[in-house]
Design a protein that fits this description.
The chain is of the alpha/beta class and about 220 residues long. It folds into two domains: about 5-120, Rossmann fold; about 125-220, Orthogonal Bundle (Arc Repressor Mutant, subunit A), CATH 1.10.10.10. It is built from eight helices and eleven strands. Helix 1 crosses helix 5 and helix 6 packs across helix 8. It is elongated, with a radius of gyration of 18 Å.
Length: about 220
């Protein structure tokens, strides 16, 4: 049985999530204080973490960032803060998904299953000289490692899934931000710009992401 670590200081909510996850066949552990999370994950790693953003003792953002220095365990952030900066920071620090309160416990269970399936069922994907490893969020181009954030990796993975296919900004937004809250097409443009810059830094002249005027973006290796 897969173990889900629920990091939530609202005891009723944590218990409710635990009940639904237990019914779905998971084991659960619960932590209320943010200071206890990293030591617990180091000692007894779970298969997935449900991580609240606002915690006593330590902020969820800091916890996520530190966990990503030693583990790629899937993390789903839970929060009542819906501002764009919080969403982008959460995903770029390495969160795999983001759920805003209020939510349905059934939705959380569905997201947990989806993230676990994605994390456990995908091996490295290769397109010509581009290799993407979703287990480690590692991307290399002709042997040169690309220093990507989680959002940039997801964006590159979407484009690389169908080389030559044109994705509109709306299609990319739908895939990266499923709930589409407080996100504009300029957000996608910003990610593409950063992604291109990092690709060029790793391998100068490697122009693999192309803009199609009035349509969107495509990848050609």
């Amino acid at each position: 049985m897969k173990t889900i670590l629920i990091v939530e200081d609202e005891r009723k909510l944590a218990s409710l999530l635990s009940d639904y996850l237990l019914q779905a066949g998971f084991e659960t552990r619960m932590i209320e204080d943010g200071r206890d999370v990293v030591p617990h994950v180091r000692q007894t790693p779970p298969e997935l973490i449900l991580l609240d953003l606002m915690l006593p003792g330590r902020d969820g953002m800091e916890i996520c960032k530190e966990i990503r220095t030693f583990s790629q365990v899937p993390i789903i952030m839970i929060t009542a803060r819906v501002e764009e900066i919080d969403r982008l920071l959460g995903l770029e620090l390495g969160a795999d998904d983001y759920i805003c309160k209020p939510f349905s416990p059934r939705e959380v269970v569905a997201r947990v299953k989806t993230v676990l399936r994605r994390a456990g069922g995908e091996g490295p994907h290769q397109v010509a000289g581009l290799v993407l490893d979703p287990q480690r969020y590692l991307a290399t181009l002709h042997g040169h490692e690309l220093d990507l954030t989680a959002v940039e990796f997801k964006l590159l993975s979407i484009l690389a899934a169908h080389p030559g296919r044109i994705y509109s900004r709306l299609q990319l937004m739908d895939r990266i931000y499923p709930d589409r809250r407080v996100v504009s097409d300029r957000t996608i443009d910003s990610h593409i710009k950063k992604l291109r810059r990092k690709i060029d830094a790793a391998l100068p002249g490697a122009d693999i992401i192309h803009s199609i005027y009035g349509a969107g973006y495509k990848l050609e290796v």
